[in-house]
Every structure is written in C-alpha cells, then in structure tokens.
Specification:
Blueprint: H1 3-55, H2 59-101, E1 104-109, E2 113-118, H3 122-130, H4 133-163, H5 170-183, H6 186-194, H7 196-207, H8 209-222, H9 229-240, H10 242-247, H11 250-260, H12 265-273, H13 278-289, H14 291-306, H15 312-323, H16 327-353
Antiparallel strand pairs: 1-2
Helix pairs in contact: 3-16, 4-11, 4-14, 5-11, 11-14, 14-16
C-alpha cells in the first residue's frame, strides 16, 4: 500500500471521528432541550396550581358568600313581613271562621254576635241541590271566562305590539290606551251605569237600523253552513263584547309593553342579517321571549275577571248575605267559588309554566 492510499485512509478516519463527534453534540443538545421543555412544563404546572389555590374560595370567602346569602334572605323576609303580619292579624282568623261557618247554621244574636250551630254539610247540600241558582251562575261565569280571557289577552298583546313601534305621539297614544284602567275605577263605573246620557247613546246605537242590519247580515253570511260555525260564533261574541274587553285591557297592555321593551334589539338585527322575515322573527324571537309576561297576564286576567263585582254570582252573594242573612250558605258559596278559581289557576300555571322561556 503506497503513501497515497495511507493518507486517504487517515482522512476517512478523521472524517468519521468528526461525524461521530457531531452526532454526540447533536444528541446532547437534544437532551438538553428536552430537559428544558420538561422543566418549563413543570414550572407552568406549578404556576397554574398556585394560581388555582390563590383563586380558590378560602374560609373567609365562603363566610363572605354565606353572609351575603343570609343578608339577602333577611331582606326578603323584611319585604314580605308586612303581608305576613297583616295576614296573621287580620286575615287568618276571618278565613278560619268563614270556613267553619260552611258547616254551621249561623244566627245573628243582638248584643252577642254570631251563634254557630253545627249542621254538617247542609249548606253545601242547599247550594248544589236545593237552590240551583249558584251552580247555574257559576257555570255561566266559567263560560264567560272562556270568552273574555282569550279576547283580553289577544287584544292587549296586539295593542302592545302596536304601541311598541316608533311613531310620533306614542306617549300620548299610550296614555289614551291606559285610560280604561282609570275609567274602570268604581266611581267611573257608577257614573257609567247611572248616567242617563250614556244610556240613551247606548240605546240609540242598538236601535240604529243600518248598523244592526249590516251586523245581522254579516253574521248570517259567516254562520251559513256547517263548517266553522262555532269558531265564527266565538269571534262574533268577542266582537260584540269589544267595549268590555278594551276596558279590561289597560294593565295587560302595560305588562306586555314592559316585556317587549326588554327584548334586545340586537336579536332582531341578527335575525334580519340571517334573512329572517318579520313573521318568523315574531314567532321565533318575540313570542318565546314574551312567554313569562303571557303567564303573568293570564293569571292577572283570571283573578281580575273572577273578582269583578258586576257579575250575577256576586249579586247572588250580596243578596244571600245582606237580604236573607244566610251567613253559612254564603260562606259555603264563597269557599266553593274560591276552590274553583284555585283549581283553574293551578291548571293554567301547570300548562303555561312548562312552555315559558326565561331569557337571562
């Protein structure tokens, strides 16, 4: 082997040593980098753990939260305390006494007050079997409720949507539609019922031949045939009572207006950008978000309807109490009426509460 070949072998060995050294340096660098990464991961984990421990509610934070909840509970009790005290002092005993009267014959003794004589269910037997006026009037009130309550809700909802639009003189129009609440006060109702001028105007409107003939002709057209007769008759009955419905819709309009004004306008803007029509926006946005106000108005309208003083049932109560002095009988009527109202309200709450959407 000549000198030239030896030199080539030495050069190759030197290159191999250089490559091995470079590989060792690369491996060492990689190991160092992995160690630094692991160190950084553990350091970040320690920092996160320290931050979570620092943000975790300690004993002082838990005590502060407990004190806040306790303070809110006390504030709530203070707000309802006047009602609770008034109920215990002024309502609990009369309620218990009236319930006891339903099972007794009550006689008014001059100078001694009331004398209760136990007679089991005789008062209930009289109102349900002996004198059928109560059941008849009660059934009539339930039927009128089925007519008036939906009409009031639809009318007030429609008017609230109109009054929620932007137009000139909106405040004045809202005030005008709130006038039925003022006019439904006791003094105005008395003026309306005892005013000869208003009575003559009402009689003149009833006796107007052209108006009555047009209305009669329209009713005959709509009620011709067998399909839809009940629906058209229901609509005609509501239209015939539109004055009473408008008079009873003031509070409901305000409640619906307050609910409509809480809906964020950004929802309608986003729906419009997505190509949603006004009709779809009403059923997908307005109607679901106003559901809680619909429930409030349904309950309020039912209570307001059943407690009005111009019904035949209330007149029967007054006659039984103030003219015939049958305290036990009128107490039984009142409790039956109360229980029926409570059952109707319970059914309505059960149906509507499951379909109400509450927006936060």
């Amino acid at each position: 082997m000549d000198d030239k070949n030896l030199e080539e072998l030495k050069d190759m060995e030197a290159e191999m040593v250089t490559v091995e050294e470079s590989a060792e340096e690369i491996a060492a660098a990689e190991a160092s980098a992995e160690g630094e990464v692991v160190t950084d991961v553990f350091a970040q984990a320690r920092e996160d753990a320290a931050a979570s421990l620092a943000s975790a509610p300690g004993p002082k934070s838990k005590k502060r939260h407990k004190d806040l909840a306790h303070g809110n509970a006390i504030a709530g009790l203070l707000f309802v305390a006047p009602f609770i005290i008034g109920f215990l002092l002024f309502l609990l005993y009369p309620l218990g006494l009236s319930f006891a009267m339903t099972f007794c014959k009550v006689d008014a003794i001059p100078g001694s007050g009331l004398r209760l004589t136990w007679n089991n269910f005789d008062n209930y037997n009289k109102i349900f079997r002996v004198e059928p006026e109560f059941t008849q009037y009660l059934w009539d009130e339930v039927k009128r409720m089925a007519l008036f309550v939906p009409g009031i809700l639809v009318f007030s909802f429609f008017m609230a949507i109109l009054l929620n639009q932007e137009f000139k003189g909106r405040a004045m129009v809202r005030a005008i539609y709130f006038l039925p609440v003022i006019l439904s006060a006791g003094i105005f109702v008395g003026l309306e019922s005892n005013n000869a001028l208003l009575a003559s105007v009402k009689d003149a409107a009833k006796n107007e031949s052209s108006l009555s003939s047009i209305t009669t002709t329209l009713e005959n057209i709509l009620l011709t045939g067998e399909t839809g007769n009940k629906f058209f008759q229901y609509v005609i009955d509501i239209v015939g009572q539109v004055y009473d419905i408008a008079m009873a819709s003031g509070i409901q309009i305000i409640i619906f207006l307050s609910g409509l004004q809480t809906i964020p306008p950004s929802m309608f803007e986003a729906a419009k950008i997505e190509g949603c029509t006004s009709w779809e926006s009403f059923w997908k946005i307005t109607f679901p978000l106003i559901g809680s106000m619909i429930l409030v108005n349904v309950v309020y309208t039912l209570v307001d309807f059943f407690t009005r003083t111009d019904s035949q049932l209330m007149t029967l109560f007054d006659q039984t109490l103030l003219q015939r002095f049958e305290y036990g009988k009128v107490a039984a009527m009142s409790w039956v009426y109360f229980m029926i109202i409570a059952v109707i309200l319970g059914i309505v709450m059960l149906i509507f509460s499951r379909r109400v959407y509450y927006y936060d």
